[in-house]
TrEMBL record:
It comes from the Bacteria. One of its GO terms (molecular function) is isomerase activity. Pfam families: Pro_isomerase. The keyword Nucleotide-binding does not apply. Residues 1-32, 60-86 are annotated as: Disordered. The keyword Isomerase applies. InterPro entries: Cyclophilin-like_dom_sf (IPR029000), Cyclophilin-type_PPIase_dom (IPR002130), Cyclophilin_A-like (IPR044666). Residues 66-85 have a biased composition (Low complexity). Keywords: Isomerase. This is Peptidylprolyl isomerase.
């Protein structure tokens, strides 16, 4: 016959066993839950890493060269709200645009025969002192190598209130398998919003051979001193860690002039 003491001990063992089984089940559930959470986090981290890679590289030129010089890849001019200036340049003449900056002078040779409406727009804007006192707001040092200027207040979407058509694109040649062409160091070209005929006042200075989509009007060439000045600015690096941001060596166009050569 089972004594009261033996019965008490048996009940205690059974209670202990039930508690142990509950603890073990709780541990298994927690382990399964943690595994699910870890898997979910891995997906999030992987997605984040992919997004960062795309963002940092900028995709391709228009994937904000770092996507290039456009409204993303390039500068984005504001929506057109006023008419393009009347053509007033000599379409057969050569012109020079001089940018007097706090980092040295940059002279840009332009041919109106190749880009009449682009040259005309720059002459019009320079005559109205549109560029005077404006910062060069974007420098890229990875993927593409350009200094972007032409926004009156340094805003990425700053523009003159009108747009001009693309010009001289055929001179860029046929795109390679990557869909891009070579913009040689020294080239000066129009930025745009990524859409055809969307140039405004923003432009970019190529300081090192760069491959971009053939959709940016090449309208000028920097002189040797100007190219060297831009390279020195680029040597100072860009803000942030992606190689695409405001130049650490602040650059301001103090005065812009356009004259017939």
């Amino acid at each position: 016959m089972v004594s009261n003491e033996q019965r008490r001990r048996q009940l205690a063992r059974e209670k202990y066993e039930r508690q142990r089984q509950r603890r073990e089940e709780a541990r298994r559930k927690a382990k399964r839950r943690n595994a699910v959470i870890a898997a979910a986090l891995a997906v999030v981290v992987a997605a984040g890493a992919t997004a960062y890679a795309v963002s940092a590289v900028g995709g391709d030129e228009d994937d904000r060269a770092a996507q290039p010089p456009a409204a993303s890849d390039s500068p984005a001019p504001s929506e057109s709200s006023s008419p393009e200036p009347r053509l007033a340049v000599d379409a057969k003449a050569a012109y020079t645009m001089k940018l007097a900056t706090n980092r040295g002078d940059i002279s840009i040779a332009m041919e109106a025969a190749k880009t009449p409406r682009t040259v005309n727009s720059f002459q019009h804007l320079a005559g109205k002192k549109f560029f005077d006192g404006s910062p060069c707001h974007r420098l890229t040092t990875k993927g593409i190598f350009v200094l972007q200027c032409g926004s009156p207040k340094g805003a990425p979407d700053g523009g003159p209130g009108y747009t001009i058509p693309d010009e001289n694109l055929a001179s860029l040649g046929k795109a390679g398998k990557d869909g891009k062409v070579l913009f040689k160091a020294g080239t000066v070209a129009m930025a745009n919003t990524g859409q055809p005929d969307s140039g405004g006042s923003q432009f970019f200075l190529v300081y090192k051979d760069t491959r971009l989509a053939p959709s940016y009007t090449p309208f000028g060439t920097m002189d040797a001193a100007g190219l060297e000045a831009v390279r020195k600015i680029a040597g100072g690096g860009a803000e942030g860690t992606a190689g695409d941001g405001a130049p650490k060596t602040a650059v301001t166009v103090e005065k812009a002039t356009v004259s017939k050569a």
